[in-house]
């Protein structure tokens, strides 16, 4: 919110693991501001949709994703695309990127702004209705499925004077899971020898992704001066 060159948004990150470490006194204070209702909402989304989506993916690729999703590696995030930002005229709410995990569930407040890139026409951005619930696959799904599932690049455009809120649930494989095509899937796109040999895990892959999204979100500077390589182009090179 204070960096005019980064994404113009405010975020609150939650997860089942983090929530358990919140001191009781602070949790009691937050409860008065609706914190418990927020957690209940995310837990309902988790219990209602995550297993269903995993089952659909199983049917698409012919392999059980549950074998690398045993620990519940979930993250909850609230996004506030507030009207009061470092750059009031910027339309950059969230820069173009592809998520790292297995899939993402995006729930919106009715305000438009989310756009997805046309898979057949890169560079063509398609607006998503503001009241739509959206499920997007990430890079881990691409690898685990052998390329049978395609990740979706997306972004958020701001409209000056309009506040936009969204709640997002991220689902990723277990941090220590080996990141390679699952046994039994038909590999339909090329991957690096390192990926095919199972020489990296989900945690290592997230670290690579994190450097890029930290720069995009304004939390980290490049060690190499001008950082012209996009997050997605670097990941394509890595995998």
TrEMBL record:
It comes from the Eukaryota. PROSITE patterns: FE2OG_OXY (PS51471). InterPro entries: IPNS-like_FE2OG_OXY, IPNS-like_sf, Iron_ascorbate_oxido_reductase, Oxoglu/Fe-dep_dioxygenase_dom. The keyword Nucleus does not apply. Residues 223-233 have a biased composition (Acidic residues). Belongs to the iron/ascorbate-dependent oxidoreductase family. This is Oxidoreductase 2OG-Fe(II) oxygenase family. It comes from Fusarium acutatum.
């Amino acid at each position: 919110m204070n960096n005019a060159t980064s994404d113009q948004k405010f975020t609150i990150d939650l997860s089942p693991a983090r929530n358990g470490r919140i001191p009781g006194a602070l949790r009691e204070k937050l409860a008065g501001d609706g914190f418990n209702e927020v957690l209940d909402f995310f837990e309902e989304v988790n219990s209602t949709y995550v297993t269903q989506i995993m089952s659909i993916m199983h049917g698409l690729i012919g392999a059980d994703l549950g074998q690398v999703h045993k620990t519940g590696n979930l993250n909850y995030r609230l996004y506030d695309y507030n009207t009061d930002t470092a750059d009031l005229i910027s339309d950059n709410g969230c820069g173009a990127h592809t998520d790292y995990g297995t899939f993402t569930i995006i729930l919106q407040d009715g305000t438009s702004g989310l756009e997805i890139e046309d898979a057949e026409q890169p560079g063509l951005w398609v607006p998503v209705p503001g009241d739509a619930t959206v499920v997007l696959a990430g890079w881990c799904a691409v690898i685990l499925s052998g390329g049978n599932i395609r990740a979706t690049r997306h972004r958020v455009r701001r409209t000056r004077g309009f506040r936009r809120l969204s709640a997002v649930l991220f689902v990723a494989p277990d941090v220590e899971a080996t990141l390679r095509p699952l046994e039994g899937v038909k590999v339909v796109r090329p991957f690096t020898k390192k990926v095919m040999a199972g020489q990296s895990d989900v945690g290592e892959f997230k670290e690579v992704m994190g450097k890029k999204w930290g720069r995009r979100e304004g939390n980290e500077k490049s060690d190499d001066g001008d950082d012209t390589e996009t997050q997605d182009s670097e990941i394509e090179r890595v995998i």
